[in-house]
Amino acid sequence: MQNEPLAYRMRPRTIDEVVGQQDVIGPQTAxxxxxxxxxxxxxxxxxEPGIGKTSIAHAIxxxxxxxxxxxxxxxxxxxxxxxxxxxxxxxxxxxxxLDEIHRFNKLQQDALLPHVESGSIIxxxxxxxxxxxxxxxxxxxxxxxxxxxxxxxxxxxAQLLKSALEDPKRGLGSQExxxxxxxxxxxxxxxxxxxxxxxxxxxSIVMASDEEDGKTIVDNSIxxxxxxxxxxxxxxxxxxxxxxxxxxxKSVRGSDINAAMYYLAHLLENGxxxxxxxxxxxxxxxxxxxxxPAVGGHVLAACQAADRLGLPEARIPxxxxxxxxxxxxxxxxxxxxxxxxxxxxHKGQTGDIPMHxxxxxxxxxxxxxxxxxxxxxxxPIGSFGGWVDQDYLPAEIKSAEYYKPVIAGxxxxxxxxxxxxxxxxxxxx
Length: 429
Hints:
Layout lengths: L5 H4 L12 H4 L4 H7 L6 E4 L6 H12 L3 E5 L5 H14 L2 E6 L6 H13 L2 E7 L3 H4 L2 H5 L3 E4 L5 H13 L10 E2 L2 H10 L4 H14 L1 E3 L2 E3 L2 H9 L10 H15 L3 H13 L3 H16 L5 H16 L5 H13 L5 H14 L33 E2 L3 E2 L24 H17 L2
Parallel strand pairs: 1-4, 1-5, 2-3, 3-4, 6-8
Antiparallel strand pairs: 7-8, 9-10
Helix pairs in contact: 5-6, 9-10, 9-11, 11-12, 13-14, 13-15, 14-17, 15-16, 15-17, 16-17
GO molecular function, one term: ATP binding
Protein name: Putative ATPase
Family: Belongs to the AAA ATPase family. RarA/MGS1/WRNIP1 subfamily.
């Protein structure tokens, strides 16, 4: 067993040994009580790597004492599923743990689903992707529980590390290791809530440390070297990656520059400049908008500079763009206006284009009634420019208003003009 990785050896053997995820499988939860009472529902476990999906499945198996089979949907074929079905017929009930369940294909489903429905196979599916996006409805409908797991806290990870250092059979307790509490905390903080990474790093640190008189002495320099080797979590195009993009935009919208920089740093560590710059450009027009129209040009320039520079230098113009957006006045009025107009069209709130607005650049257009348009530039109004009172919307919806100004930044001026023009129209009609 000592040849197996430490993270594998330290998996919980029962649900009472599970560290973290207390709101999912803690003693006060319905799931814990069901399992303790002998009822194991089929379920989906959703969350980032290293936060306990596989461990919870093994812990449930250890508690229930049911025959346990583990498969990975990326490598298992129809024959593997048929073997599970055969096992369930022989034993009466089987607990199947299926990792990467979002990659389940139709043949595997067809062979397995009736047995999950009948209860002869209890399915525990694990996925890093959002099950409501990436897991087939047929699977979801047969799982009574869909649990989203959270990243482990630093305290949870530190507890796991201490257990590994103390356990003489499964962990490193048979070795004499000199490691300070603050060093354990440093490893825990650097694991980013990933128990597997933390235990793997601890094992590597111990193996890389020097021995003195039979005692392994852990040095801070070894810890820091190993910490640099741990990547930031966030697979490109995975659910967590899109969660990072969402968190970045919501932090900018909420004017929290520190949170925005944190999420930007995460995204850039994953190296996908295209997705980041695309999202920043959308944010400039969606969330800053007319309150500070210059931001759109500034962000575009920053994104173009980032594309030309590449990483790591690209972080500099992008950080400036994010900082400016965080601290800028904000308005979503323009995009809300186009969404309102689009919604109205989909609801059938349309009409004919007024005759005087139709194309008149050809012979015979006047015969069709395309006449009466007045050129606004010929009628100056104050310092605004040209304006005339004429209808532009179809007669059927001429009173429609999609734009609702936000009184912020530059849009204060635009809002004043908008309201003034409305009063002009009311006076002349």
